[in-house]
Amino acid sequence: FLKSLRVIEWESNFLSGTLPLKEILNTSLVERLHVRDNEFSGEIPSLIGLMSDLRSCLLQENHWTGTIPTEIGLLTTVEAWHIGGTNSMMVMNPAIRTDAGSMMIQGTIPTEIGNMAQVTALTIVSTNITGPIPTQIGLLTNLRRLQLVESNLSGSIPTEIGLLTDLERLVLNGNGNLTGTIPTELGHLTSLDLASFRNSNVSGTMPHEICALSPRYLVGSCFNDLLACGCCTNCNQDILSDSDDGGDGGGGGSSRSPPP
């Protein structure tokens, strides 16, 4: 059944229920799974880990519950992974919110995420995920965009992020339990174009090593005095645009209209 299926694009279709991977596809062939902006609920199937050819997975703007399955560590060919309760508009501007009850993904970010060796874009937005940012993030050396936004991440920013020398975008907005100082190792991110720590509780001084990179956008904690940052840009400007995240980047906003 559907033995040659390689692309699933069900975006913005008001689909509901659970994601029926087992019943509808040969998971070993699918390269693109785009189901964002629907009404899917339940847990993200662990079966997703058997999709050995998967390259792009957009799951955001649904009603998932449970945890991120550890089986994502089996997705060694995936290049884009996005999950969250809202679209990129909330990454653009933290004043834009969604009902937290619509996105009940919880637990922690599994350490197995470090096995996703080909991933270039990783976004987790508007969840109830807690715990630290896993140090295994530093193994994702192809990563260009890391956006962990509006969750309950805690602890300090791991120094291992400084190993991601191709990283262009680092957004950690809205993690109020994220504390400690910004590691000087982030000064190794020579491709960095955007870094934002808005609405977090990081403290101290923005390291000179990061200021010296002169990224186009550098946004501190903005709404408290915990982080001194003389080189930061305007906290009130929209630092992203939907067009920046087009295609498999997963940042485009919803375009659907209500059903008749």
UniProtKB/TrEMBL annotation:
SUPFAM superfamilies: L domain-like
InterPro entries, per the entry: LRR_dom_sf (IPR032675), RLP_Defense (IPR053038)
Superkingdom of origin: Eukaryota
Name of this chain's protein: L domain-like protein
Species: Cyclophora tenuis
